[in-house]
């Protein structure tokens, strides 16, 4: 029985969920994020919801953070030096032959994280099979160390060609660098990524060195502050590919945490769909996480997350396990404005946590999605979580100036336009994770969460022609629920290009065992995947395998099924192995609830009525405001369901009821 705290830092709010294993109690807290020092918002949430005696009993503190992501977005990280094989100095600028936007004639790639003067070559060469073609020249490494010392380099990335096949030269270069007096962190490409593709591996290693300068100190500072408050357990950080890392691993491999925040909500959705799918008849779910800054979405099929093995942030590829979460700048704080042509636009720029939407009364003056929702009655008047008092007058004043340049008639129409545009942006992102994968979203259920997710549930249902919306318990903090449910996960990969035949299976099994020994989790559940392709092709599909049990026919059949699902046809060409992937998973506690307990206590304004806009009727109506715990039976919209950290908007033509798990289920009653 393990007591766990999960804290998710968003762009506007920091969310906390605590599961007390002794009593089964769920505690939640929501506090404004402090962008300049994110740990202050984390500690404020802890102080608000976790008394010292309970904090002392917590075994795990699981943290989802955007510190690494923000370092990349802001280009505020370490001054990085790069040591690479002679002839490969400019790999970061040559990139690939494609363009991020093929239709933008003026598109230019983002500048490399390492300027050319800090990209230094050394004489050495290893072949793709691991054989040494030319020995490493020590003097080249020592000269590089002198340049780094003169330039004030904070961290060094060492990326030598084909080092995934033979790491001896990289290891030797790191030893020489330390002997020359360099005391900063060093990222070795064979430790960061055991895969081929020099550009992607170089970029991943450089990103690791770049963000380590901020991630390590931040995590250690947070750990120290928690321990002064009595915490004696383990601090864990969620991975971009799901699961969590220990503090030491996260500080040593920060590139694995770049998207740790958005993934937590997707993981919670997968567990919810797996546990409720049979009773609700849901096989496919779409996570719809609407926060203050962004809308994050992912497709969940059969309770499984879509896992990729290479992602991209701000044009930089990363060779790391990566849950396919799509994000757009359409959150509660997204700013509405009129463009040069007089069209109403929403996002991606956000008012963030400071100053926040105009209605927060904290100095913000620009109109946002939250201001529009408040004006239309979609958010109850008065206080919201985080101790914020909402001002309807401030919201109306911010929205009013948009009527003139856009030609829209009045504040009401402006607010309706803002909400509809935001919902359209969200729906387009959902199509990106469904239609682009060959999945019809009309057969899925929308799982709406985040502070503003339940506000947009019915709007998304209409945009996507979906019949069912599920609002989980503690919806406003549901991403933090995903942190509470996290397991400790480690993964490693090694490129192994060879034909898939009977002789390959023993080699794959031995390599997988080597990778598991490196992961050093003896009591873990082990998973092996292969990147496979038809011979002559470039791209791969990742297929789960059981090396000791599967034969070539079974693996080939599994690949053909996945290939047909992805591309609509199959090919007779022989298969080729490209990469062997090993994942080990340690379950922290079997006592953690897959679906958390429903919220309790005052939720917003409580009972009563409010003036609420119906998008289906295109008019205002007096609608009931019901506390979530007071909802009984099937209740038809329009109405608001309020709880401590979120509000659920139910439009006309929809009905809501409480599922036995505590989730709200909204179903369509008629089509427009």
CATH class descriptor name of one domain: Alpha Beta
Which architecture name of one domain does CATH use? 2-Layer Sandwich
On the 0-100 scale, what is the average pLDDT?
90
**Low-confidence region ranges:** none
Q: For the largest beta sheet, what order do the strands appear in spatially?
A: 19-14-13-24-25-36-35-32
Rg over CA atoms, rounded to whole Å, is 26 Å
Category from helices, strands and their pairing = alpha+beta
DSSP strand content: 25-35%
Describe the structure.
The strands form ten sheets. Strands 19-14-13-24-25-36-35-32 form an eight-stranded mixed sheet, with helices on both faces. Strands 3-2-1-4-11-12 form a six-stranded mixed sheet, sandwiched between helices. Helix content is 32%, strand content 27%. Among the domains are: 3-72 and 215-256, ATPase, nucleotide binding domain (Nucleotidyltransferase, domain 5); 79-184, no CATH class; 488-586, Dna Ligase, domain 1, CATH 3.30.1490; 609-668, no CATH class. With 672 residues, it is of the alpha+beta class. The model has no long low-confidence stretch (mean pLDDT 90). Helix 6 (168-179) links the parallel strand 9 (155-159) and strand 10 (186-188). Helix 10 (260-280) crosses helix 16, helix 11 crosses helix 12 and helix 11 (369-375) packs across helix 14 (410-434). The chain has 18 helices and 36 strands. One of its GO terms (cellular component) is cytosol. GO terms for molecular function: 5-oxoprolinase (ATP-hydrolyzing) activity. It comes from Microbispora triticiradicis. Pfam families: Hydant_A_N, Hydantoinase_A.
């Amino acid at each position: 029985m393990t007591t766990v705290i999960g804290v998710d830092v968003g762009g506007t709010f920091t969310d906390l969920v605590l599961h007390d294993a002794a009593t089964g109690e769920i505690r939640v807290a929501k506090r404004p994020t402090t962008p300049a020092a994110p740990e202050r918002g984390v500690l404020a949430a802890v102080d608000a919801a976790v008394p010292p005696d309970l904090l002392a009993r917590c075994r795990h503190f699981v943290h989802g953070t955007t510190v690494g992501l923000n370092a990349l977005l802001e280009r505020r990280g370490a001054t990085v030096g790069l040591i690479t094989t002679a002839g490969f100095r400019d790999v970061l600028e040559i990139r690939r032959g494609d363009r991020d936007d093929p239709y933008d004639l003026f598109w230019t790639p983002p500048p490399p994280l390492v300027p050319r003067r800090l990209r230094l070559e050394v004489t050495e060469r290893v072949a793709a099979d691991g054989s040494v073609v030319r020995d490493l020249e020590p003097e080249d490494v020592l000269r590089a160390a002198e340049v780094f010392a003169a330039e004030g380099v904070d961290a060094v990335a060492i990326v030598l060609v084909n080092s995934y096949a033979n790491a001896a030269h990289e290891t030797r270069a790191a030893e020489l660098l330390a002997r020359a007096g360099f005391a900063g962190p060093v990222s070795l490409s064979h430790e960061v990524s055991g895969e081929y593709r020099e550009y992607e591996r170089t970029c991943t290693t450089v990103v690791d060195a770049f963000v380590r300068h901020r991630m390590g100190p931040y995590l250690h500072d947070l750990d120290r502050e928690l321990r002064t408050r009595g915490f004696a357990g383990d601090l864990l950080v969620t991975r971009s590919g799901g699961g969590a890392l220990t503090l030491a691993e996260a500080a040593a491999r920060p590139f694995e945490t770049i998207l740790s925040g958005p993934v937590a909500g997707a993981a919670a959705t997968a567990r919810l769909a797996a546990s409720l799918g049979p009773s609700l008849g849901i096989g496919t779910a779409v996570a719809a996480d609407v926060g203050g800054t962004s809308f994050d979405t992912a497709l969940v099929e059969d309770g499984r997350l879509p896992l990729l093995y290479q992602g991209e942030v701000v044009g930089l590829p990363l060779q790391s396990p990566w849950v396919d979460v799509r994000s757009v700048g359409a959150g509660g704080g997204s700013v509405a404005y009129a463009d040069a042509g007089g069209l109403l636009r929403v996002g991606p720029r956000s008012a963030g946590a400071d100053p926040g939407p105009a209605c927060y009364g904290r100095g913000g003056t620009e109109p946002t999605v939250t201001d529009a929702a408040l004006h239309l009655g979609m958010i109850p008047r008065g206080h919201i979580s985080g101790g914020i008092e909402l001002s309807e007058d401030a919201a109306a004043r911010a929205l009013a100036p948009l009527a003139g340049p856009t030609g829209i008639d009045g504040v009401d129409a402006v607010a309706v336009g803002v909400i509809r545009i935001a919902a359209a942006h969200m729906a387009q992102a959902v199509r990106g994770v469904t239609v682009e994968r060959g999945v019809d979203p009309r057969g899925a259920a929308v799982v709406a969460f985040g502070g503003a997710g339940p506000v947009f549930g019915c709007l998304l249902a209409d945009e996507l022609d979906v019949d069912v919306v599920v609002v989980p318990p503690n919806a406003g903090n549901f991403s933090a629920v995903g942190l509470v449910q996290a397991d400790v996960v480690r993964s490693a990969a090694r490129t192994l290009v060879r034909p898939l035949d009977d002789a390959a299976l023993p080699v794959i099994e031995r390599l997988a065992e080597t990778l598991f020994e490196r992961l050093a989790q003896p009591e873990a559940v082990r998973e092996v995947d292969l990147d496979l392709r038809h011979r002559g092709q470039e791209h791969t599909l990742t297929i789960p395998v059981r090396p000791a049990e599967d034969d070539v026919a079974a693996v080939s059949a599994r690949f053909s099924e996945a290939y047909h699902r992805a591309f609509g046809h199959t090919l007779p060409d022989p298969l080729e192995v490209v990469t062997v992937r090993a994942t080990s998973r340690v379950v922290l506690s079997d006592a953690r609830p897959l679906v958390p307990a429903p919220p309790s206590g005052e939720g917003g304004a409580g009972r009563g009525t409010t003036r609420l806009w119906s998008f289906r009727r295109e008019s205002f109506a007096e609608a009931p405001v019901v506390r979530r715990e007071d909802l009984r039976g099937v209740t038809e919209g329009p109405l608001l369901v309020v709880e401590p950290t979120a509000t659920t908007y139910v439009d006309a033509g929809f009905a809501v009821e409480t599922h036995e798990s505590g989730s709200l289920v909204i179903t369509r009653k008629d089509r427009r």
